[in-house]
Automatic annotation (TrEMBL):
Role description: Required for accurate and efficient protein synthesis under certain stress conditions. May act as a fidelity factor of the translation reaction, by catalyzing a one-codon backward translocation of tRNAs on improperly translocated ribosomes. Back-translocation proceeds from a post-translocation (POST) complex to a pre-translocation (PRE) complex, thus giving elongation factor G a second chance to translocate the tRNAs correctly. Binds to ribosomes in a GTP-dependent manner.
GO cellular component, one term: plasma membrane
Topology in membrane: Peripheral membrane protein
Organism lineage: Bacteria, Pseudomonadati, Pseudomonadota, Alphaproteobacteria, Geminicoccales
InterPro entries from the UniProt entry: EF-4, EFG_III/V, EFG_V-like, EFTu-like_2, G_TR_CS, LepA_C_sf, LepA_CTD, LepA_IV
UniProt protein name: Elongation factor 4
Length: 597
């Protein structure tokens, strides 16, 4: 295909504005799949994603379209994830495109992620085509939303398309508009190969699969390619495109988006953002890469039963093969035994990995409190990054501690503004900006990330009845008055319940945690004292009274098999418990203790 007949684009939208539905419709209209092969959301390959309706892995699909001018076009639709945790993956998908559809729900209007994604697209020099979705709904207000797009994003929306991805209304116009308004790629087929690695993942049948976008030159089967960043060179086994099923090709030239496989063992060799070139005729310069994604939230993951440790390690390794933004390393805890400290892009990312481990690998897990990465500066002039509150050093040796901050943009209808501001204030936020568009406010706050990982998002949603939308980016580190809060159970410090909190919040959080634990820890044969301490000082205390839970008492001596059943049942219940000293703590306690306000 010549370049003039290629269009590479993404669909960017706020969550639930209909991106996947539109993508499905485009695929269907272009006949990329026979109708019987259509599942509900073709682009989301992992079941769990489908369930959550969130696309994690950036994927691509090649579509063939015969336009009204009678000519055939190749479209590469690059899928982008919709959640704030994955903003980085959005930016890397955009690097493979010349244009994007800015999809806005005509009943909801511009939301925080519409704005964030639109700005990212503008930064990446993409041509943006505004599209109003869900106009089949009676509540749609296309004229008002057009005005909003102009006022908030500064994009001419007078000709915005009005469609229903659900009914198919206006979808043919979208295809025509892609041809007409989005620019074709540029590039030189005769120049040395330069292709950008958009993504790479491990496929059990094919090995490492690398998704790329060719800028210059041609990538072909049998060619020996080299990754310019790592220097690794491999002969190419297969080249192909996703339709969305893989379709093998002999070669792909400038402007193309496709995948290749080679005998690559480790996805670390096919680093996202690296440049692929020809080993024999290499390019002199690499393409501008992506900024690497950094895990920002860490927690401990432990097997509920110690003998699943190996399985957990293997499973984490397998997940990591497909998700380079997730990290893990072994750690041990007095309360929980052997496990792993894992790093994630955000809380949602953590939940997804946790669910996959439990579901796909059938593991029972105990997860410890999520923590951000602190920078600890010692009096001797050294400093280091702290990923685990349990490793907090002796306070007398600490000079000062810095914590990560974020810049959050929140869009919220007027009537909920008061509670939203109060929430930001309570979370130690510093207001930066506030503007109004119609009856909605956009507020920008700097907030400590450690306050946001607790329960900020859930509370924002509940105080605004779901109407507030939220987007954030990391915004540097700042010195803070932080202390380590320890939880003691019958005087034993439970390392996996330690947390680092701002001094002003420490007592309250200590009290809340003790109360929560008191409700969650079942009565034992002896009294259990739950205490919170800062340094050596006890700031809160609760007690669980003694009680004997004798399941056999119910059985009046009789049937032995019934007795055994009851004992087995009790044993089953025990699996989900963790022994701390002489006390068993249900695993919910480790997380629930942190989800409170
Ligand atoms: P994420 O993948 O979670 O980011 O969401 P998304 O933006 O891909 O949204 P999705 O396509 O899953 O659509 C969200 C909801 O809106 C679904 O229930 C769709 O059925 C519905 N929806 C999408 N397009 C339309 C439309 O044109 N009209 C109506 N009435 N509903 C629509």
């Amino acid at each position: 295909t010549d370049l003039a007949h290629i269009r590479n684009f993404a669909i960017v939208a706020h969550i639930d504005h209909g991106k996947s539905t539109l993508a499905d419709r485009l695929i269907e209209t272009c006949g990329g799949l026979a109708a019987r092969e259509m599942t509900s959301q073709v682009l989301d390959s992992m079941d769990i994603e489908r369930e959550r309706g969130i696309t994690i892995k950036a994927q691509t699909v090649r579509l063939l379209y015969r336009a009204k001018d009678g000519q055939d076009y190749t479209f590469n639709l690059i899928d982008t994830p919709g959640h704030v945790d994955f903003a980085y993956e959005v930016s890397r998908s955009m690097r493979a495109c010349e244009g994007a559809l800015l999809l806005v729900d005509a009943t909801q209007g511009v939301e925080a992620q519409t704005l964030a994604n639109a700005y990212q697209a503008i930064d990446a020099n993409l041509e943006l085509l505004p599209v109003l979705n869900k106009v089949d709904l009676p509540a749609a207000e296309p004229e008002r939303i057009k005005q909003q797009i102009e006022d908030i994003i500064g994009l001419d929306a007078s000709d915005a398309l009005q469609i229903s991805a659900k009914t198919g209304l206006g979808v043919p116009d979208v295809l025509e508009a892609i041809v007409k308004y989005l620019p074709p790629p540029t590039g030189d087929a005769d120049a040395p190969l330069q292709a950008l690695v958009i993504d790479s993942w491990y496929d059990p049948y094919l090995g490492v699969v690398t998704l790329f976008r060719v800028r210059n030159g041609v990538i072909r089967k049998g060619q020996k390619i080299r990754f310019m960043g790592t220097g690794a060179a491999h002969p190419v086994d297969r080249v192909g495109v996703m339709t969305p099923k893989p379709l093998l090709m002999d070669a792909l030239g400038p402007g193309s988006v496709g995948f290749f496989t080679a005998a690559i063992k480790d996805i670390a060799d096919a680093r996202v953002g690296d440049t692929i070139t020809d080993d024999r005729k290499p390019a002199t310069v690499a393409l501008e890469g992506f900024r690497p994604s950094q895990p920002v939230v860490f927690c401990g993951m432990y097997p509920a039963e110690a003998d699943s440790y190996e399985t957990l390690r293997d499973s984490l390794g397998k997940l990591r093969l497909n998700d380079a933004s997730f990290e893990f390393e072994p750690e041990s805890s007095g309360a929980l035994g052997l496990g792993f400290r894992c790093g994630f892009l955000g809380l949602l990312h953590l939940e997804i990995i946790q669910e996959r481990l439990e579901r796909e690998f059938d593991l029972d897990l105990v997860i410890t409190a999520p923590s951000v990465v602190y920078r600890v500066h010692m009096t001797d002039g050294t400093s280091y990054e702290l990923h685990n509150p349990a490793d907090y050093p002796d306070v007398t040796k600490i000079d000062h501690v810095e914590e990560p901050w974020i810049k959050a943009s929140i869009m919220v209808p007027d009537e909920f503004l008061g509670p939203v501001l109060a929430l930001c204030q309570e979370k130690r936020g510093v207001q930066q900006d506030m503007t109004y568009v119609g009856n909605r406010a956009m507020v920008v706050y700097r907030l400590p990330l450690n306050e946001v990982v607790f329960d900020f998002y859930d509370r924002l949603k509940s105080i605004s009845r779901g109407y507030a939308s939220f987007d954030y980016q990391l915004d540097g580190y700042g010195e803070s008055d932080l202390v380590k809060l320890d939880i003691l159970i019958n005087s034993d410090k439970v390392d996996s319940l330690s947390m680092i909190v701002h001094r002003s919040m420490a007592e309250l959080r200590g009290r809340n945690t003790c109360e929560k634990l008191q409700q969650l820890i079942p009565r034992q044969m002896f009294q259990v004292a739950i205490q919170a301490a800062i340094g050596g000082k006890i700031v809160a205390r609760e007690t669980v009274k003694a009680f004997r839970k004798d399941v056999l008492a119910k059985c009046y001596g009789g049937d032995i098999s019934r007795k055994r059943k009851l004992l087995d049942k009790q044993k089953e219940g025990k699996k989900r418990m963790r022994q701390v000293g002489q006390i068993e703590i249900p695993q919910e306690a480790f997380l629930a203790a942190l989800k409170m306000s």
